[in-house]
Design goal:
Number of strands of chain B: 17
Order of helices and strands of chain B: EEEHEHEHEHEEEEEEEHEHEHEHEH
Helix content of chain B: 25-40%
Largest interface: A-B, 82 and 89 residues
CATH class of chain A: Alpha Beta
Number of domains of chain A: 1
Distance between the termini of chain B: 60 Å
Structural class of chain B: alpha/beta
Radius of gyration of chain A: 21 Å
Strand content of chain B: 25-35%
Helix content of chain A: 25-40%
Oligomer: heterotrimer
Structural class of chain A: alpha/beta
Chains: A alpha/beta (257), B alpha/beta (318), C alpha+beta (841)
């Protein structure tokens, strides 16, 4: 039985042009909406994949405001078992603070009788991109950690992990319990079913608070750089452009033989 | 000021981002520029270091470090930092660079700034760094005894130093704690050319949208994908209309792809679709509308009907 | 990459279904040099068309909507983008079943195939619907889905083929240049383009664009939530986009529409979520498109549960995922009608906005006709942009009313339903007195008008149930009271006092005023000073634009008095026809004058007691007006009547209205006079007299001949529509406006039912009637005629049955009631000799 904790963060949807709040301190999601980072959606999918066949549970945890409940429930809607909300203003926390808050929650759950064999996080948050929370958490919990993982398989007390390295797919075999940060691409995140959404709405979400003192993120301002102008090279019009197009294909080395 | 730069080796050379990082570290006024290479440093790497003005190359050639383990590499960075009496450590903003630096930060109780593009002040450390996937910049103050930062790729040019450095190789002894090898690569499955069975793994994706015209409009698309050893991806409207199965859908509600080449045919390029294909290395658009977002955002474009252009391309390919 | 031309004859802003349909129809009607702009890319620039669910239910209680929708369906079919799926409106409650029965009536009236079916019949065609959740349904076999983007592309292409159109996408409008009240040019991100005609057809952005020119298009972007669930195995088995009928789950304000292997669930049940056009994100800022806003799932959860009840197996399938979920933006208006026509503020600037997919091509055709020769074939009276009064153009009003009406999209809306929001905006000077008298207020054009007075409740007993005809059924009696009928009878017995402050009043003044008015109205305008003329106002085809009264106050001054609801449109109609040289101008005096009606057998005695003027029938002729002194008040008295009694409309400056009202009350009450509400003035009084009302019997599709208002001879001077009416006089009318009485009100359950208007008239056996236009007769006005003890209906009948005594039937809530034609022309059913008006009764 493998119990998995997945940490998710509510972030402004990063697919549209970034809009800032008037004070220039936060990304404003009023147009694009809020979502879970793609890496973390993949982490939820992996967690369900690992836990379900083993009869284990998946807990979705978020450190954030009341609104983050939406992301916790989104995880439950696609197969997680329950949720934890550590109430905090995530924008005032730095990666070290978040790691401490998560570690405290893991310990609290452990004291209450639920231990996690795996803690999955996103490789980096879609908004702040600090690349640190998972690693810092591992040191706080004294567990091994692998970053940038795309697939996870558990056999007994060992997790086999795949990550893309410079020369190919790197395989890790790590003794549990462990911390893993996930990069999207190894698993297709699911959309919730109607039933899943209903379950999520009714599922229990435990609320916790973090007792630590935030060190903060150091953020002073955000700016949006100008979008680069169109760089398109028009190769021609209609079928007569075919030779030019094929020349580009050859240059890109995507044509074999 | 003494700076240690983590140099990653790629195909026998210092990787491009590593060279950029060296140039950047030098520009910060590092009179004492150190490099750290894990494993034995090939001559070409030393040459790159010399060119970048590196004074000392710390070579961590301990066999325990042969297979990658981020924590053990972090121990090497710590050792190099001590040896260089560094007050600034810079890593390339790659997956590995960020991972190792995060370990160093966690181990030493330090703060770290990832994907920095500019340093405004060293004391206190004030940086501009990329956030939201590079769509925004953050100005942040990162107070720390030893300053740790990773350098966003392609923020600076890898320019050579005015005067080459000595790049003296200094073997670095790293006491590797077995604990730091708890998470270590056990093997590498080397990538093979042409292995592109799935849409997300494909190196080439030929995309088709409403311009296909109907379920029968994909013959040339299929043929080209096969010819290029790639996969077919489609826009939402195509699956919505039932012309192609959902697992082929690229976009917000389908797969996100990052192939070497995305050849988008008859796809106007809604933001929803763009979200799924923006990470492609090169994008070529074939579209009747020169104003279509797919065209204006692409690297290359052919203005024309995909039903006329693709057969001509196939013929040209032979 | 089309470059922006420097000038065009016509600029159409917007390339959604409306703009695309419009450029097509303008080209069809011979327009050339049209330039169409959109800030987004083609074929989906990112407006509401791009995320529309694209299905069409033709049935609506409004004839205007139904006709436009039917025309749109014809056009979509001709374009080859219509797929007929059929559709159900299912009922979970008895109240909804009753509404479906009422919809059957509207369907019959507008000629739309429809039938009521059992849950089992629904389940036969929609096997994944749980029939135990519903108690019945309405089946509309002609319902279908369209490809609105494809339709738009084809229509643009057709206009291009005609050499009439240049479309420039990816160009945003940044400003409007207006010179001397007329549009001159449009400013864009690609430069300036001059045009004498500019059409705003850009949906939710229209108010923003109009404001750039100082004009108002009072709509609001509002959220409509939609999700798409799939793939559903059962749906994937069938080929094509749609193979199952669309289901409207009316009681939950939701619909379920198959889309390939997905099931779309849309909702109008959530709280109203309104946006400002200025706050809609740019294409770059939005995740999907500017009008596909982030889904707020908490708002949708209750609907999800209800949808699951209806289709448990299909939507409960764990493998079917919610793949797409949006808060889609669409346009809502304060009264639910589109906003069409030339803006009253800026000449040459047109609006074609707040039009949904089902109305797009039909509306565009009508507006193109309007732009070309002024006369759309389908009457657009309810949608005319000129209808808005100033307060109705405020953002607060638009938001208040749309917030209230959003939930009524699938709601059961009574024909007399009143809005609760933004009331008490325009108050008559005697409002305080009316409140004391227990007035029950209904709203017209923002005015609070007493519909009846509870102080008159005692009269119901006095006249008894035979004459006051109380209604047993709650629906029939909603927004109504038998006090109306009692007030009517008391007026006929003694006198009634009516507050008419809501009248729209404007003067036409200037040396060329006579010439201008003469040209606009049918009646002779060159009358002596002090004459009052009741007259139709026609369009070039002889269709009704209005009916109103004109007082000649001086050689160069005519006072036009018309209904409040339509007053702004009438004002624009007159203003548009003033001489270019300024020889006559229109001056709005609505807020300067209040009007009080005093009518009844005791009216003479009451007014005589307050004035030294000779107001006797002999001394104050019918159809005249003059200043009289009523004590210390100077009053303009006009001897006309809309209720069939002797009396006057009394005009005083608005600040003197309360004083005149009180003096008349004090003088009249001892003689049996009572305050009388609009229930009498608007319905019972006029229906007994067979008076026609604009917006009910009269609209641009009706002629003088058909309404029985033709004349033996026409004035010598030319007037708008003269050629047409002269020609029509020689032809047999295709339909004849008749008054009918209901012979028996008893329903199958024994409860007496009273029609409210809109019901189909059939043969006595229930057979369909069709007039010379191909229309089916329906009730234009229904109301009590207390003096006759009858319920009276008005309807345009085929000429062959338009004879007094013909026995027909009216269908109400799917039951037939016998009716008899009581008048086949304008002859009043009550006092046909008009002795009372003449003061000779």
């Amino acid at each position: 039985m493998t119990n998995v904790l997945v940490c998710v963060k509510r972030v402004p949807d990063p697919t549209g042009e970034v809009v800032l709040t008037p004070d220039g301190l936060r990304v404003d999601g009023r147009y694009a909406g809020y979502t879970t980072s793609a890496h973390e959606e993949a982490a939820v999918a992996l967690a369900v994949q690992v836990a379900e066949p083993s009869g284990g549970t998946v807990t979705v945890l978020s450190v954030g405001s009341e609104d983050s409940l939406e992301q916790v429930r989104a995880g439950i809607a696609v197969g997680a078992t329950d949720g934890v909300l550590v109430e905090a203003d995530a924008d005032l926390l730095g990666p070290a603070d978040v790691a401490e808050a998560v570690a405290e929650a893991v310990r609290a759950r452990s004291d209450a009788g639920t231990t996690y064999d795996l803690v999955l996080l996103g490789n980096d948050a879609a908004d702040t991109g600090d690349f640190q929370v998972g690693v810092r958490l591992a040191y706080l919990l004294d567990r091994p950690v692998v970053a940038g993982v795309q697939t996870v398989a558990v056999d007994g007390d060992v997790a086999t992990l795949h990550a893309e390295g410079p020369e190919g797919t790197e395989v890790y075999e790590v003794a549990l319990p462990a911390v893993v940060t996930v990069l999207e691409g190894g698993v297709s995140p699911k959309y919730p079913s109607v039933m899943g959404r209903m379950r999520a709405k009714k599922a229990e979400v435990e609320r916790m608070t973090w007792s630590g003192t935030p060190g903060g993120s150091g953020r002073e301002a955000l700016t949006v750089p100008e979008a680069p102008p169109s760089q398109v090279t028009v190769l021609g019009e209609g079928p007569t452009a075919a030779p030019a197009l094929v020349a580009v294909l050859r240059e890109l080395k995507v044509v074999h033989s | 000021m003494s700076v240690v730069v983590l140099v990653e080796v790629e195909e026998g050379r210092a990787s491009l981002v590593s060279r950029e990082t060296l140039a950047f570290a030098r520009s910060l006024g590092a009179g004492n520029l150190h490099a750290l290479v894990v494993g034995s440093a090939p001559e070409a790497v030393l040459a790159d270091c010399r060119e970048a003005g590196v004074v000392v190359v710390h070579e961590a050639a301990d066999p325990a470090l042969e297979r990658y383990a981020a924590a053990a590499w972090a121990a090497a960075v710590e050792a190099a930092g001590r040896a260089a009496r560094a007050d600034l450590v810079v890593a390339p903003g790659t997956g590995r660079g960020n991972e190792v630096l995060a370990h160093v930060a966690a181990r030493r109780g330090l703060r770290m700034a990832a994907n920095v593009v500019a340093v405004e002040s060293l004391s206190p450390l004030v940086v501009q760094r990329q956030v939201v996937g590079g769509a925004a910049l953050e100005r942040a103050t990162v107070p720390s005894r030893v300053r740790l930062l990773s350098m966003a790729g392609h923020a600076v040019e890898p320019t050579p130093a005015d005067a080459p450095g000595e790049a003296r190789v200094q073997p670095l002894a790293v006491a590797v704690d077995p604990k730091d090898l708890r998470a270590q690569v056990v093997r590498v499955e080397r990538r093979e050319q042409g292995d592109s069975s799935g849409l997300t793994a494909a190196k080439v994706v030929v995309g088709a949208g409403r311009g296909a015209g109907g379920p029968d409009g994909f013959a040339a698309v299929d043929a080209l994908a096969e010819r290029l050893g790639g996969a077919v991806g489609v826009s939402r409207v195509v699956t919505s209309l039932g012309w192609r199965p959902h697992h082929e859908q690229v976009g917000q509600t389908g797969s996100r792809i990052a192939p070497d080449l995305y050849l988008a045919c008859g796809i106007s390029g809604s933001i929803q679709h763009w979200a799924g294909c923006a990470s492609s290395r090169t994008i070529i658009a074939v579209n009747t509308d020169a104003d279509a977002p797919m065209v204006t955002k692409a690297d290359y474009a052919v203005i024309g009907d995909m039903h006329e252009v693709l057969p001509a391309v196939l013929e040209e390919l032979g | 990459m089309a470059a922006l031309p420097a000038s065009a004859r016509c600029v159409v802003i917007g390339a959604g279904i409306v703009g695309n349909s419009l450029v097509h129809h303008l080209a069809e009607l011979g327009w050339t040099d049209i330039v169409q702009l959109d800030k987004g890319p083609l074929p989906n620039p990112g407006g509401s068309t791009g995320h529309a669910s694209n299905f069409i239910f033709p049935v609506d209680h409004s004839r205007e909507f139904a006709d436009i929708t039917l025309d749109s369906m014809r056009q979509y079919k001709e374009l080859g983008v219509f797929t007929e799926s059929g559709g159900y409106e299912v009922a979970r409650t008895e109240e909804r079943m009753e509404e479906l029965r009422r919809r059957m009536g509207s369907a019959k009236a507008w000629g739309i195939p429809a039938e009521l079916v059992t849950p089992e019949q629904v389940a036969e065609k929609v096997p994944f619907l749980d029939k135990d959740v519903i108690i019945g349904a309405a089946w509309f076999p002609t319902v279908g889905v369209v490809d609105s983007l494809r339709a738009g592309t084809i229509m643009r292409e057709r206009a291009v083929e005609r050499g009439a159109l240049t479309t420039v996408p990816n160009v945003e409008v940044t400003g409007m240049e207006v010179v001397d009240g007329r549009i001159r040019a449009v400013e864009t991100t690609q430069g300036r383009i001059e045009a004498e005609t500019v059409v705003v057809a850009c949906g939710v952005w229209s108010p923003k664009i109009a404001r750039m020119a100082g004009a108002h298009i009072p709509l609001t972007p509002a959220v409509h939530q939609m999700i798409s669930v799939g793939p559903c195995e059962v749906l994937a088995e069938k080929p094509g986009e749609i193979s199952y009928p669309i289901v409207r789950d009316m009681d939950t304000f939701c619909y379920e529409r198959q889309h390939g292997s997905d099931m779309e669930v849309g909702s109008y049940a959530h709280r109203a979520i309104l946006w400002d056009p200025e706050d809609i994100p740019s294409i770059e800022q939005s995740k999907l498109s500017p009008t596909e806003m982030p889904f707020t799932e908490d708002d949708f959860d209750p609907q999800l549960e209800q949808a699951l009840e209806l289709m448990p197996e299909l939507l409960g399938d764990e493998r079917a995922e919610i793949r797409y979920a949006i808060n889609g933006l669409l346009s809502l208006t304060p009264d639910g009608y589109p906003i069409l026509g030339e803006t009253p503020e800026v000449k040459g600037l047109w609006s074609c906005a707040a039009v949904w997919i089902k109305e797009g091509p039909g509306t565009a055709r009508a507006v193109a006709e309007w732009m070309t020769h002024g006369n759309p074939e389908i009457d657009l009276g309810h949608s005319d942009i000129a209808r808005f009064h100033p307060h109705q153009k405020t953002r607060a009003h638009v938001k208040a009313r749309t917030s209230e009406s959003f939930i009524k999209t699938y709601g059961i809306v009574h024909p007399a339903e009143q809005y609760g929001s933004n009331r008490d905006v325009r108050l008559a000077p005697m409002h305080a007195s009316q409140k004391e008298l227990g007035a029950v207020f209904h709203e017209t054009a923002g005015w609070e008008r007493p519909h009846w007075y509870t102080s008159n409740a005692g009269l119901v007993e006095k006249f008894g149930p035979e004459q006051t005809m109380p209604r047993e059924h709650e629906w029939d009696a909603r927004w109504w009271s038998p006090i109306i009928n009692a007030e009517h009878l008391q007026m006929r017995e003694a006198a009634g006092l009516v507050d008419l402050s809501a009248f729209a009043i404007f003067d036409v003044v200037g040396p060329r005023a006579l010439e201008a008015v003469q040209r606009i109205i049918v009646a002779q305008a060159d009358v002596r000073i002090g004459r009052v003329v009741y007259t139709p106002v026609l369009d070039e085809r002889g269709g009704f634009r209005s009916d109103l009264t004109v007082m000649r106050l001086a050689h160069d001054r005519f006072r036009v008095v018309t209904g409040g609801a339509h007053g702004m449109a009438d004002k624009k109609w007159f203003a548009d026809r003033m001489p270019e040289d300024g020889g006559a101008v229109v001056v709005d005096l609505t807020s300067s004058w209040t009007t009080i009606g005093l009518w009844g057998p005791k009216a003479l005695e009451i007014l005589s007691g307050l004035t030294d003027a000779d107001v006797s029938p002999g001394g104050f002729a019918f159809g005249t007006c003059r200043e009289i002194e009523v004590g210390t008040l100077s009053v303009l008295a006009s001897r006309i009547s809309y209720v069939g009694e002797f009396g006057w409309e009394l005009y005083v400056p608005i600040e003197a209205g309360a004083a005149l009202w009180q003096r008349l009350l004090d003088a009249g009450t001892p003689l049996g006079m009572v305050p009388v509400g609009i229930g009498v003035y608007g319905t019972t009084g006029r229906i007994e007299k067979g008076y026609r009302a604009y917006g009910y019997e009269l609209d641009t599709e009706r002629t003088l001949m058909e309404t029985g208002m033709s004349r033996a001879k026409w004035k010598e001077q030319d007037f708008v529509g003269k050629d047409a009416v002269v020609a029509q006089a020689d032809e047999a009318p295709k339909a004849v406006l008749c008054s009918l009485t209901v012979d028996d009100h008893t329903s199958a359950s024994g409860v007496k039912r009273y029609m409210l208007g809109g019901e189909p008239i059939l043969t006595r056996e229930g057979g369909t009637l069709t007039d010379g236009h191909g229309r089916h007769p329906y009730v234009t006005t229904a109301g009590s005629a207390p003096s006759l003890g009858k319920h009276v209906l008005m309807a345009f009948l085929p000429p062959e049955v338009a004879t007094v005594g013909t026995q027909l039937a009216v269908s109400y809530m799917e039951e037939l009631y016998p009716v008899t034609v009581a008048a086949a022309d304008a002859t009043p059913l009550f006092d046909p000799e008009n002795l009372r008006i003449r003061g000779r009764a």
